[in-house]
């Protein structure tokens, strides 16, 4: 069976070779014409954005995301506050954004509001993570336009569980690679 990117014989493509795998490898005699196959179009890996003012938390979130099979090929960008995140989102489309709420310059709630209103982006899933855990806090986060709200302290297992739960519920994803895991 021919693989992409490797030469294949015309006789194998057009079916003019004798039947059977060995006969197809031998060709039809003489010097076979060699053609190269058309390479598969390369699909860019999905981009994820992690927003938190703590570099340690950003690194933990990045490593956690990259351990998930659904995000293994993903490129994870980081931003230290909402202003930087908004700039990145103006330039790049993200499959997923995970943001803290309490940050300098622009908090996570304002980031979500501005993404939804100014950038007119209602598709990108935005997961807010925070130590603020009252019902009012959660309600404010979801009312701002967040897709989900996850409480800190955040273990890698807790984040993975929350993201898989969102995928099972069919959140709007931007990249075909980010499909729900098989149950």
Helices and strands in order, then pairings?
Elements: E1 7-9, H1 10-14, H2 21-26, E2 34-36, E3 47-51, H3 55-67, E4 75-79, H4 82-91, E5 96-100, H5 108-117, E6 126-130, H6 135-144, E7 148-151, H7 156-168
Parallel strand pairs: 3-4, 3-5, 5-6, 6-7
Antiparallel strand pairs: 1-2
Short description:
The protein has 7 helices and 7 strands, in the order βααββαβαβαβαβα.
Primary descriptors:
183 residues; alpha/beta; Rossmann fold; two-stranded antiparallel ribbon; disordered N terminus
Task: Give a description of the structure.
The chain has 183 residues and is of the alpha/beta class. The protein folds into 2 domains: 7-36, no CATH class; 47-168, Response regulator (Rossmann fold, 3-Layer(aba) Sandwich), CATH 3.40.50. Helix content is 37%, strand content 16%. It contains 7 helices and 7 strands. The chain has helices spanning 10-14, 21-26, 55-67, 82-91, 108-117, 135-144, 156-168, and strands at residues 7-9, 34-36, 47-51, 75-79, 96-100, 126-130, 148-151. The strands form 2 sheets. A 5-stranded parallel beta sheet has the order 4-3-5-6-7, with helices on both faces. It has a two-stranded antiparallel ribbon with strand order 1-2. Helix 3 (55-67) links the parallel strand 3 and strand 4. The longest helix is centred in the middle third of the chain and has 13 residues, at 55-67.
